[in-house]
Amino acid sequence: MKARSEFRNVHHVCMVSDFFYPNMGGVESHIYHLAQCLRARGHKVIIVTHAYGNRTGIRYLTNGMKAYYLPMLPFYNQCALPTVFTTLPIMRQIFIREKITVVHGHSAFSTLAHEAMFHARTMNINAVFTDHSLFGFADASSIITNAILRFSLSGVNHGICVSNTSKENTVLRSGINPELVSVIPNAVDAVMFTPDPSQRTPGQITIVVVSRLVYRKGIDLLAGVIPSICEKYPDVQFLIGGDGPKRVLLEEVREQHQLHNRVKLLGTIAHTEVRNVLVKGDIFLNPSLTEAFCIAIVEAASCGLQVVSTRVGGVPEVLPPEFIRLAQPSVSSLLTEVEGAIHDHRMGLYLPVHVAHNRIKAMYRWQDVARQTEAVYDRLQLSPALDSWERITMYRNSGPFAGIIFTMLAIINYFFLWFLEWWQPLENIDVLSEAPLDTSGSFSDNHDITGSSSNRKLCKEN
Questions:
Q1: Comparing 38-42, 127-131, 295-299, 400-404, which segment has the lowest mean pLDDT?
Q2: Whole-model pTM?
Q3: Element (H, E) at 346
């Protein structure tokens, strides 16, 4: 059998985001699983994020994966304070020490990701960006975020979106060439989301909701659905996991309609416990107002639940019709589809749980995501490198006013880099010697295990 290096380029990848473990969420899970699978395919991958409490410095995660927790604290919403230039010295040190060939930023919200990609392009290192969210165009928050995205993506080599709807949204917001954006869906660790019908309540139908309890997740719609369903169907109960400012609204609905025994609010749930909540349900309800992909409905389908979701964003692309009922984002439409799912459950008109699980397991695999991401990295090596002037011209073409600001920032960053190259020459930086990549599941002495034991086998080739 040939060694990997004989038929595949080996990339040194630095994944950067403000959102990573121990913080829990979809972006964090995506980065972790993708990094592990790329390592299993023979690539070197490190993670760069900001400090979380007393978690600073270098940590070694499952399978010996290295994570840099930079000595900077979150400023707002788990994001570091945007400074543009002050992160260049430490990013330069990391990129040179680790011999990085690709910097991969995640999430449009992450200031650290945008700055790392900006510095990577200044150093003529390939930069890739993955967008995990959908944004509007009218409110102040979206306008500011879209301006930052336009600046950031003016210099990146390639973009990745998790759905076709997400790609269209990102292209419109950033002005990036659509040919430079690939669609690579999310995936699910099916080993962690196996069905267990014995956990369901006999004689009752349980509707599960697992979501942040915020406006954009459609909690106002959920508050309108609960009383009507409970009044019409005495054998239906709701199990709601998650927390947020809209929890008060659900508590008011429960109190007003005396539904304490039928609406259970579980509060915040660790990602490792989500499966234990899902397997107690028969139907999964996602009333969200916006979704780029929605990994939650894939996890629910993997556990054998029927899915009812609003027809928003990339949701219609995620599951085949036999897995999901799609509703318009309104109370009346959701009620119709939930009642249809209740009828299907009573009549047995749904996929057997283990059949559903096996189909999801085959459809959404992290190994496939890693292969497609690897193909993006490979294409970057074949593309011609841009010189400094060509890159500055790209920033200048970003707009009549914004283009001038972007150009000034790029020029200042070049001057700062030249100063650092004089102040701390390359020969004074301790470049790490190459060692065989550890993809066997073994651990170094001072490790910090973040994932479950199933992650060790997650990315093994079939």
A1: 400-404
A2: 0.83
A3: helix 331-347
- How confident is the model over 75-95, as pLDDT tens digits? 777 778 788 899 999 999 999
Distance CA 120, CA 137 (A): 28
Q: Which of 57-61, 113-117, 279-283, 380-384 has the lowest mean pLDDT?
A: 380-384
- Under the phi-then-psi rule, with left for phi > 0, alpha for psi from -120 to 50, and beta for the rest, what region is 78? left
Query: For the chain, what is the largest distance between any 2 Cα atoms, rounded to a whole number of angstroms?
Result: 75
**What does residue 52 show for φ and ψ, rounded to 5 degrees?**
-120, 100
Cα gap 107→18, rounded to integer Å: 8
Distance of CA 439 to the CA centre of its chain: 23
Residue 161 CA to residue 170 CA, distance in Å, equals 8
* DSSP for 258-303, written as a single string: T-TTTEEEEE---HHHHHHHHTT-SEEEE--S--SS-HHHHHHHHT
Q: Residues 39-50: pLDDT tens digits?
A: 999 999 999 999
What domains appear along the chain, each with residue ranges and CATH number? Answer: 9-187+366-457 (3.40.50.2000), 190-363 (3.40.50.2000)
pLDDT, tens digit (0-9, with 9 covering 90-100), for 386-441: 666 667 777 776 667 767 888 888 899 999 999 999 999 988 888 887 654 554 44
Q: How many CB atoms lie within 10 A of CB 137?
A: 10
Helix axes 111-122, 402-423, angle to 10 degrees: 70
Report strand pairing: 44-50 vs 12-16: parallel
Dihedral of alpha carbons 157, 160, 161, 163, sign: positive
Q: How many CB atoms lie within 10 A of CB 358?
A: 15
Burial class (CB in 10 A: 0-12, 13-18, 19+), 210: buried
Residue pair 9/371 in contact (Cβ under 8 Å)? The answer is: no
Q: Which tens digits make up the pLDDT trace of 165-201?
A: 999 999 988 888 899 999 999 999 888 999 999 999 9
Residue 334 or residue 395, greater confidence = 334
Q: In what order do the strands lie in the sheet with 57-60?
A: 57-60, 66-70, 44-50, 12-16, 102-106, 126-131, 158-161, 181-183
User: Radius of gyration (Cα) for the chain, nearest Å?
Assistant: 23
